[in-house]
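INFO batch 0412 | record 1 of 1 | parsing
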Amino acid sequence: VLVPNIGRVVQSSKEIALKAVVKSLQVTLETYFLKQGAYPVGVSMSMADLANLLILSGDLIQVPINPFTGKIYSASDIVGRIEYSSSSGQIYRLLGFGSKGGNPLIQIGKD
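INFO prediction complete | emitting tokens
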């Protein structure tokens, strides 16, 4: 009889969901760039702060749900954290972190 490691399956699904949120955010940022001519400028911006900026610009409808907490992203998130940086507005970096901190699970771009 095989017994699945439910904890690992749940953890893996949260990581996959986090990557999907980051990739969706990438598309939203590209839309913002096409309309504004630059990416939002900010350093180590939280997902909540970036989402609010994108909502004000009309490029995002609502703050996404953090797959690790099951709640909308907040600036104080530690698990499932997404961090955005663009010092020039011409390039950006998105980092998505899981529950263990350390190295990001996903990185898009460089700043």
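INFO post-check: The longest strand covers residues 42-46.
INFO record closed
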